[in-house]
Design goal:
mainly alpha, two-stranded antiparallel sheet, 14 helices
């Protein structure tokens, strides 16, 4: 299966390189561009938002061609799931294009994401239980809810990470390649071809997205990456119903998941909506710390590779500890190396100390005012 896998990677890479110049010119004509602002965005001139379209076309065309050439019999359930994945990918792509062009509201975008995930579920993307050692945990009626939560979390985590040149593309490449290696090891050859086609198309696009970027993925591209990775991880990992396989996809997406968790903590603990926009994401923090765009990208690639290695080892050795340890190492490097999530870590530890102090302290009858005040710098300059 090495030949079809290699062909999928190289053919999608070449097709993406061919499609990008044409797609870029077309995007400018129809005004599908990302216009800079003075609050969140780091670029200074309009950039075409065509990465998602190119990635979808190149990976879909190459995947279909290579799978048709492979001498691998597909069960009817596999065929149904592959068709569902194609339709769901097209749906999320259209939602992303609409958001890139017309700036949809959060609830409108979420509705489109739910529709795409529903297509996956109807097509058979479900799992029923997980086994941890000798303990079997059945999900029952909650299995569908877990699929919704996993897919929406993956989609929006990658989407939130896509705020700097090459970030989402690099994470997508490393994640797809790692999950492809796991798929080949577990015998899911068709899924490996899909992932390698995705990785190849992202590699071709990265030539135009590498700092300083000449094109962006857009919401169409970042959400597409999250959907495909989430869907194939359900087929290859979660359906294994064992802990080491189930935790591997979580470790693969450690960087976008940590960025999303930090955003939720930052906003909720300061009384804001979790949908509020700010400049506290990973790429913003790295830019403020003085790292160049390329140095920031190297950091992200290194951290993502660390978690991907742990995810792969957990599958190859049947040990969940590697996946958990890799996520802990990435988080530790970020916090204690003061790369990211330092403020959010302080917010959480401060809240825990306050809760413990409140739980163990005895309240005097004469004390009526128990209000406290604390401050912490989230963003901006010291002065």
């Amino acid at each position: 299966m090495i030949l079809p896998a290699t062909l999928a990677l190289l053919a999608s890479l070449a097709l993406a390189l061919l499609l990008m110049p044409l797609a870029g010119r077309l995007a400018v004509r129809v005004r599908l561009v990302d216009t800079p602002d003075d609050t969140r965005k780091l670029h200074r001139k309009p950039i075409p938002l065509v990465g998602g379209i190119v990635v979808f076309l190149s990976s879909s065309i190459v995947s279909a061609a290579v799978i048709a050439m492979m001498d691998v019999p597909l069960r009817s359930s596999d065929q149904t799931e592959l068709v569902a994945l194609l339709i769901a990918s097209l749906a999320i792509l259209l939602v992303g294009i609409a958001d890139d062009r017309f700036n949809l509201r959060g609830r409108q975008k979420l509705f489109g994401q739910i529709v795409a995930v529903t297509i996956l579920i109807v097509g058979g993307f479900q799992f029923d239980q997980i086994r941890i050692s000798v303990l079997v945990i059945p999900f029952g009626v909650f299995s569908i809810l877990i699929v919704y939560l996993w897919c929406l979390l993956a989609i929006n985590s990658v989407n939130l990470l896509d705020g700097a040149d090459g970030f989402a593309s690099t994470v997508g490449i490393i994640t797809a390649l790692s999950l492809a290696a796991m798929s080949l090891y577990l015998g899911y050859y068709v899924d490996a071809v899909l992932l390698l086609a995705l990785a190849g198309s992202l590699l071709g696009f990265l030539r135009f997205n590498f700092p300083p970027a000449r094109a962006y993925l857009g919401d169409a591209g970042s959400m597409l990456i999250g959907l495909v990775v989430a869907a194939i991880s359900i087929r290859c990992a979660f359906k294994q119903a064992v802990a080491y396989a189930a935790f591997a996809p979580v470790a693969l997406l450690a960087i976008p998941l940590i960025d999303t968790a930090a955003a939720v903590i930052r906003r909720r603990f300061t009384g804001r909506s979790i949908y509020a926009e700010d400049r506290g994401h990973l790429h913003h923090v790295m830019a403020r710390s003085g790292l160049s765009p390329r140095a920031s990208l190297v950091w992200v690639a290194a951290l993502c590779s660390m978690s991907a290695m742990g995810a792969a080892l957990s599958v190859f050795t049947n040990q969940v500890e590697y996946a958990l340890a890799s996520v802990a190492m990435v988080l530790g490097v970020m916090i204690f190396g003061k790369v990211f999530a330092v403020t959010e870590f302080n917010l959480v530890t401060r809240r825990i100390r306050e809760m413990l102090r409140s739980f163990f302290s005895l309240r005097s009858r004469d004390v009526t005012d128990t209000a406290t005040h604390s401050s912490i710098r989230l963003q901006g300059q010291h002065d």
